[in-house]
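Q: Hi! First time doing this. I have a protein sequence and I read that you can turn it into a structure. Is that right? Here it is:
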Amino acid sequence: MYEGACVWSGTVLAVLTVVAIVVRFSVEKFVIEKQSWSMTYIQNYIDAVVIGVTVLVVAIPEGLPLAVTLALAYSVRVSRRSSSVVKVRR
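A: Yes, that's right. Below is the predicted 3D structure, encoded as structure tokens:
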């Protein structure tokens, strides 16, 4: 029973965090500053999702392996795109 409540509350907290960050950023940029849409703003929305995943991992320790796997996959993709040289140690 406690585990189910922990998972549920952690998920709700993570979703609320992402929604709050996205709404704050959108209102600040598009309503207050009256700026038009730019593709550079996508990074801000990605950052909000990353923060939400971080909150989820902190709230639910079982999510840690998934978060580590996603972080490693993302960093490998970035390294491959930047043509980084990786030395293989044997």
